[in-house]
Amino acid sequence: MTHRLLTLAPALSSQPWTLAPGSRLLALVLSALLLNACAIGPDYQRPDTTTPVAFKEAAGWRQANPSDALARGAWWELYGDAQLNDLVQTLNRSNQTVAQSEAQFRQAQALVRSARGAFFPSADLSVGKTRSSQGTGSSNSSLTSSSSGIRDTLNAQVGVSWEADVWGKLRRGLEANEASAQASLADLAAMRLSQQSELVQNYLQLRVIDQQKRLLQNTVVAYERSLKMSENQYRAGISGKDAVAQAQTQLRNTQANLIDLIWQRAQFENAIAVLTGQPPAGFTLAETQAVPALPQIPVSLPSQLLERRPDIASAERSIIAANANIGVAKAAYYPDFSLSLSGGYSSSTYEDWISVPNRFWSVGPKIALPLFDGGQRSAEVDRNEALYDQTVAKYRQTVLDGFREVENYLVQLKVLEDEAVVQQQALESARESLRLTSNQYKAGLIAYLDVVVVQATALSAERTVLNLQQSRLIASVNLITALGGGWDGNTDLSANEKAAQ
Fold this sequence. Notes:
Helix content is 58%, strand content 12%. By secondary structure, it is α+β, with helices and mostly antiparallel strands. The chain is elongated, with a radius of gyration of 38 Å. The model is unreliable at 1-22, 66-71, 141-146 and 489-501 (pLDDT under 50). Belongs to the outer membrane factor (OMF) (TC 1.B.17) family.
């Protein structure tokens, strides 16, 4: 289907400029439209969402209050580990996934600058030479030289054009690009928060593994003493060969578990290296003697979550862009108004090319209106309205997912806290049972098998406590991430970006 374009373009030449009545009327109408122009399409309104007054699982949690001692956005400092702080700062500078998102944001910023440039006139300069030929109209070609009718033309021309944004198409386009750039900024913040969360989780798990290694190393030393004692008692005829075999089995299993921790720690160390933009071969983290303590996490109101979480901010700004694009699509129904101006010099020879007799110019407004397009404009409007509905549904789902994540991590931390209390009591009982059983074995009152059982129970209780500590630390990171990386109520994404750098 061909696209027919209705064009009304009264032009002025280098003849004396006297506007015809129709041209004057067109100029007056165009001026009135420019002075009273309004943007076509709906103005943005935030979609309604169901926001609870408080989180269901927030009972017993400390209410959030901004902390002047804690840098805005530097949530990882809550764990009080200087090495972790340095690693996160390195991630902010060198993480390649964040670098990709940052480059995408710069692309979105460039589109905004391009959209703003559409409001200004465009100018171009062209200089060229053309050779053309026109027939003489005679059928007797033998009487005409081969060069007859050939003409060289030299042109130097400056052209200026400007489109009047009468219906707000350009303004809606700029609005869409600005919203997309803000969504890209929010995506950058979300990606940085995700990478920071992954690094902190890896680091905390690595430190728990260090603690497990020390536990197993101490256990191996204790089991080696038990094996030696069993061998001495066997040689003295106090115990049988089975006690030695049981002691050896227990020792070897524990040594195997210790070896298994080596590759687990290496995996976390390599992951941290990549997150900080470094090759694993040149990156090491020395073991430390302590695991970072679980921080006290305040909980903010659910309504603040909508403004702080970068994924929710990105989803909402995508709605703004989709809403503006509806206006761009609807503006296609209305005529385009533009003004063009051109002038220059044209001559058939280089001699006196740039001279007054060879100059030319033209100026005039133009109106262009598509008369028939086979329903393309209507389809484009429908497509953008459907896209708007899609982004609204995505925004609402993102909000629901945000509430769900916070509720899940709140209850997880509460349950893990209760479980840790009970498990600590079980560990103390296991330690006391091991002490009593070991004394009974040394006195020859019980067999070594009884000691092995109690030792295995005590070791399992020790490792369970460490695993619970790891789970609580990871859940705390997940909760902070679900809260948007903080709770100070700061909704300025650009400020958050600066704080994270």
